[in-house]
């Protein structure tokens, strides 16, 4: 029984590991974009294991690729040996990264990928000074937490890095929120120059930034901001790290990588989540001269293992063959336009934002910009009651997050939209 499993969970797992819903659920099977819980209730999944089950559930091409590797008897060999699946996937990612003369280092998670990028950048620049963005999230290890600009996710004040903070792209609150997009870019670039002049010793290693902030509630700056920032970075030789853990692989619809909306190319790019479709697979790709700036032996025991990279190859091939980036743009527009039309005008909805299949709705107390996490949780629970799984996020826990599999159909988009609209309007006390 789920209740028994919940009690067992609480008896052996730490209390700081959150569980969704007032009555937590166990997912026991899945197919396509739907999952079934231990009570037999089916849900349309709009969160995909936190944007990780990117292709959906029980996809034959991925299952068969993994089964072929399992049949060889080699689940693990370590990277001390050649791994064909790893090399093939690295070739594909390097070619698609947009980075010239690229090298790829595989890890198991986005946290490890960002940790590796920070290791490389600080070695290359011989400096532990980092620029990071407020409201960001980059992982749970010491260095990754050190560049995370969200105190809810910073479990330790210890930091091996010296960090200076830049403004986020928040359009609801903050010093830059009241500005137009063009003015916001100009102000953010001016702020970067001032931060470099006042908060650093000059020899900064890198700026790390998410094109769209995941845990931060899908906040994103105006297109072109990274180009403005990079012009300043290049003047000082500072590296740019694009954290594409949630924005990569065409999820934004308009581009394969989130950074491409800004007309720049990063020195390092981190990836994770969707590329494994549930298998532990992540990594960093960057210019050879930068990525190879590690003055000692380093490798990841499980990073790029035969099973995960077999899955990764199948995922990337499926993604490209089915043009899921175009699908993300198409069905994402159904959701975004539908939400803005049906609930965007409510006085409790501060903003409907995002790109492609990475969408958020921010809730506030009516007529203010004051966050309303209680209403957000009501909507969240109402979605579940209606048969839809969504996510939560934002600095104040007041953003409903949607990151469905990129295989979402138009029919499923309309189905999910109807549940979302009903959940929001009923929770806000608005008649249907």
From TrEMBL:
Q: Which residues are listed as membrane-spanning?
A: none
Keywords of the record? Aminotransferase, Pyridoxal phosphate, Transferase
Query: Matching SUPFAM superfamilies, A to Z?
Result: PLP-dependent transferases
Cofactor field: pyridoxal 5'-phosphate
EC numbers: 2.6.1.44
Spell out the coiled coil positions from the record: none
GO function terms (MF aspect): alanine-glyoxylate transaminase activity; pyridoxal phosphate binding
Looking at its record, which EC class is this enzyme?
transferase
Q: Which family does it belong to?
A: Belongs to the class-III pyridoxal-phosphate-dependent aminotransferase family.
Q: How does it assemble?
A: Homotetramer.
Annotated protein name in UniProt? alanine--glyoxylate transaminase
Which lineage do the record's taxonomy fields give for this organism?
A: Bacteria, Bacillati, Actinomycetota, Actinomycetes, Micromonosporales
């Amino acid at each position: 029984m789920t209740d028994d499993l919940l009690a067992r969970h609480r008896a052996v797992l730490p209390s700081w590991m959150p569980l969704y819903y007032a009555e937590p659920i166990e997912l026991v099977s899945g197919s396509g974009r739907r999952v079934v819980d231990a009570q037999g209730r089916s849900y349309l999944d709009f969160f995909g294991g936190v944007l990780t089950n990117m292709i959906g559930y029980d996809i034959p091409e991925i299952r068969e690729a993994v089964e072929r590797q399992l049949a060889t008897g080699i689940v693990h060999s370590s990277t001390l040996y050649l791994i064909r699946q790893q090399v093939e996937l690295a070739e594909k990612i390097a070619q698609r990264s947009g980075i010239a003369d690229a090298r790829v280092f595989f890890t198991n998670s986005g946290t490890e990928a960002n940790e590796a990028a920070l290791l490389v950048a600080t070695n290359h620049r011989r400096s532990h000074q980092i620029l990071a963005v407020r409201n960001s999230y980059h992982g749970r290890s010491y260095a990754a937490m050190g560049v995370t600009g969200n105190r809810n996710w910073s479990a330790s004040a210890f930091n091996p890095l010296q960090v200076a903070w830049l403004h986020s792209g928040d359009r609801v609150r903050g010093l830059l929120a009241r500005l137009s997009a063009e003015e916001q870019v100009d102000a953010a670039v001016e702020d970067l120059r001032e931060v470099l002049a006042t908060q650093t010793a000059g020899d900064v290693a890198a700026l790390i930034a998410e094109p769209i902030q995941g845990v931060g509630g899908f906040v994103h700056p105006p297109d072109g901001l990274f180009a403005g920032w990079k012009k300043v970075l290049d003047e000082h030789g500072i590296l740019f790290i694009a954290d594409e853990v949630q924005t990569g692989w065409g999820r934004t619809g308009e581009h394969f990588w989130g950074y491409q909306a800004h007309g720049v190319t990063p020195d390092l790019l981190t990836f994770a989540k969707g590329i494994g479709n549930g298998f532990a697979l992540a990594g960093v790709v960057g210019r050879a001269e930068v990525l190879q700036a590690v003055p000692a032996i380093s490798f990841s025991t499980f990073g790029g293992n035969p099973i995960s990279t077999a899955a990764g190859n199948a995922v990337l091939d499926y993604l490209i063959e089915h043009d899921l980036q175009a699908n993300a743009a198409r069905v994402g527009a159904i959701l975004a336009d539908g939400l803005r039309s049906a609930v965007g005008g409510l006085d409790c909805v501060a903003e409907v934002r995002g790109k492609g299949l990475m969408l958020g709705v921010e809730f506030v107390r009516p007529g203010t910009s004051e966050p309303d996490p209680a209403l957000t949780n009501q909507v969240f629970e109402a979605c579940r009651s209606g048969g839809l799984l969504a996510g939560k996020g934002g600095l104040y826990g007041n953003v409903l997050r949607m990151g469905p599999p990129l295989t979402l159909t138009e029919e499923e988009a309309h189905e999910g939209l109807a549940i979302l609209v009903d959940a929001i309007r009923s929770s806000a006390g608005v008649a249907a």
